[in-house]
Write a structure and sequence with these properties.
22 helices; three-stranded antiparallel β-sheet; DNA polymerase, domain 1; single chain; mainly alpha
Length: about 525
């Protein structure tokens, strides 16, 4: 059975929509529209939509001899009449001129959107059944036609026979019987057939520039909600309208602005890489901007209040595991990262000067990502700090110094691996304490103390420290050095959480002075 007959039986029509043709050719809808505009696919317009003839599609799919559907029906006067006839299965017949039977190789010259001229020669099929096509792009129309004639003459060993120049359609029309069939124009782009999640996994596992495995995993986490919405949609089918709706939706989920921006930027990066790799026809992010959050946050909860820290430290008195107390005390007065805390060594602690030096941190090396929505396995190891800026010596409060000295006394009566470990917070084997182990300790403490609503984490002490430094009027360079963040935006937008009450309290002195000036004016 010919391709034409198969298509007619499959769709019970002789004119097909752009979407169906795109599916049959395995290309995006935009590529189909380009083929129509260059004349490679013959189409008519009905109610503003292009309908492609099955014979034209069949020829592009490799049918050697397009079927002759007979004489042309009387021209329909309106698109409504044509639409009605299609509804009633009275299909419009588009006659196609018979091919030159004694011609082996055929070719055509067509105009591309960039003004270049594409020479295309059909050479039948390869041994594997795929179409054999030869193409060449030239800047000049005459040179393109000469190249086609010369190449066909060479291949056929006789006078060349080629299809006439095919120009883009400028208005809806039904092709007359005398019009020759136009051969496919140019190379049909080969785009990726992968879904967004499949493509994103390939990009992330293929590494992105100098990004570390931890950064790559952060990209994965930022794509979690995105994949839930468009993960199963093919890359070539995703457009700017879908993405705009997606991020408008995510703006309700991601109240935290930095999470929303991370998802937007990571998704945009995936599509930009797809365009640069020529895996999709165009970048849908060209005119999109990250939407603002539509939820109102009533209260800031990132930084602990002084009262909350008092509760945490006082509740620990009744708790039996002594390792958390020095952890909390150090984090409160230094704001160091949990990875830096777990990598601290006793040799860097100076109780006389009340200081502790940070020279290293616990880092993670993530394995290959198997799924965007599934956590990735990793291993922990000691590495240098996040940047050279992170090597620093910090002051400790008297409470933190005393807590560390008491912890040292406890370790002196502990098993040899912990007693002799160089790490301040070691595991039973003497190595640094794992992240999972620390989280388990905190969960047990929270449950026993009954303070689940406080969302206790070590990292929140970092936010608290930064906020306190801002309220204390410390210069930004000083805060940068203490916090080990050389970007002002990170300090101001992420770590600083000034509540309304804190702002009012900090401005007390200003209003006292203002009142004094007003009093002098009134008097």
């Amino acid at each position: 059975m010919s391709i034409s007959k198969e298509l007619k039986e499959k769709y019970q029509a002789r004119l097909l929509s752009e979407q169906i043709v795109a599916k049959e050719l395995g290309i995006p809808k935009k590529a189909v529209q380009e083929l129509i505009s260059t004349g490679a696919l013959q189409a008519v317009e009905v109610s503003g939509k292009s309908l492609i003839s099955i014979s034209s599609l069949a020829a592009m799919l490799g049918e050697e001899k397009p079927s002759d559907f007979g004489q042309h029906l009387p021209v329909l006067h309106t698109s409504e009449e044509l639409s009605c006839s299609l509804t009633n299965n009275e299909l419009v017949q588009i006659p196609i001129q018979e091919e030159v039977k004694d011609m082996i190789y055929k070719g055509s010259v067509s105009v591309l959107k960039d003004g270049r001229f594409m020479v295309q020669i059909e050479k039948g099929k390869k041994s594997d059944g795929k179409r054999d096509r030869e193409s060449k792009s030239l800047r000049d129309e005459i040179q393109a036609q000469k190249y086609l004639d010369s190449r066909l003459n060479e291949l056929n060993g006789t006078n060349s026979v080629s299809s006439p120049m095919v120009y883009p359609m400028s208005a809806p029309m039904i092709f007359p019987i005398s019009q020759p069939y136009a051969m496919p124009a140019g190379n049909i782009p080969t785009y990726t057939n992968k879904t967004f999640e499949q493509y994103a996994l390939d990009i992330l596992n293929g590494c992105i520039g100098k990004a570390t495995s931890r950064t790559i995993n952060s990209y994965r986490e930022s794509l979690f909600q995105v994949v839930r919405h468009i993960g199963n949609v093919k890359m070539v089918e995703i457009d700017d309208i879908q993405l705009r709706k997606l991020f408008d939706t995510l703006s309700y989920y991601y109240v935290k602005n930095y999470l929303k921006k991370s998802s937007f930027r990571t998704t945009k990066m995936i599509f930009e890489l797809a365009v640069s790799n020529k895996d999709i026809p165009s970048a849908p992010f060209t005119k999109l901007k990250c939407p603002t959050s539509k939820q109102i946050i009533d209260s800031e909860t990132e930084a602990y209040s002084d009262e909350e820290i008092t509760v945490i430290l006082s509740e620990f008195i009744a708790y039996q595991n002594p390792i958390l107390y020095p952890m909390f005390a150090i984090c409160e007065c230094t704001g160091m990262r949990p990875g830096e805390l777990r990598a601290l060594e006793w040799s860097k602690f100076n109780p006389a000067d009340k200081t502790i030096a940070i020279r290293q941190a616990v880092s993670k090396d993530y394995e290959e990502i198997e799924s965007i929505t599934k956590a990735t396995d990793y291993r922990e190891f000691i590495s240098i700090t996040k940047s050279a800026f992170g090597v620093r010596t910090l002051r400790l409060s008297d409470l933190a110094v005393q807590a560390l000295l008491e912890w040292r006394k406890i370790l002196d009566h502990s098993p040899a691996p912990m007693k002799n470990s160089k790490f301040i917070f070691s595991s039973r084997s003497g190595d640094f304490k794992s992240e999972t182990s620390v989280k388990s300790l905190i969960q047990r403490f929270v449950k026993k103390a009954g303070i689940k609503d406080m969302r206790l984490t070590l990292y929140r002490f970092r936010h608290t420290m930064c906020t306190r430094l801002i309220l204390a009027g410390q210069p930004i360079p000083v805060i940068q050095r203490i916090m080990e963040d050389n970007t002002v935006d990170v300090i101001m937008k992420i770590y600083t959480h000034v509540t309304e009450q804190q702002a009012m309290a900090a401005c007390g002195e200003y209003y006292d002075q203002l009142n004094q000036r007003h009093l002098a004016i009134v008097v």
